[in-house]
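Supplementary Text 2. Reproducibility record for the structural model of the 208-residue chain.

All settings were left at their defaults, and a single model was retained for analysis rather than an ensemble. We include the record here because the model underlies the residue-level annotations in Supplementary Table 4.
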Amino acid sequence: MDLTATAPFSIGLTGGIGSGKSTVARTLVELGAVLIDSDAIARLIALPGGVAIGPLQAEFGAQALDASGGLNRPRMRELAFADPFVKRRLEAILHPLIGMETERLAADAGDKVRVFDVPLLVESTRWRSRVTKVLVIDCDAATQVARVAQRSGWSEQTVQAVIAQQASREKRRACADAVIYNNGVTSDELAQQVTSLWRQWVVARRAL
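Retained model, structure tokens:
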């Protein structure tokens, strides 16, 4: 399914861990967009009874599940970081299921602007051709580490390991139609930047 064929406008939203994508996404929703969050979908399908649980258990055994019957995220994250083959096996299960739910939500969005929040948009090259514009939220690595450590309680080493597995800031910016720098700005200033871009991309386009 070509997502761009059924949407008047779509934004691919991406950025490194701790960049502030979720805050930007909330502002875009307040402006009238429909958010389709790949991370939220991934969490949903891996809850107890979710569509990913059976395939995950079949592939990785009991270690893939926690006491509630959902995905054991810390354990699987540890295995995936240590072994690229485990990471590929995990992605081979999750990515098609995430894609199916993404397309379902996109089809339900009607004529509203769709915002696809995809952390690995740059790494997954197919996304660039499926959205109208790519918006990258950028900040320096020190800010990423501080935000994630405060939010999730992860160690600096863990956050740095995640950053190392993601596309570089330079590679993300090279793929962007617009970049919002989320370093040293207030929440109001960030919202103003998002609103300004919305006016350029969406409001002005509708006025044509």
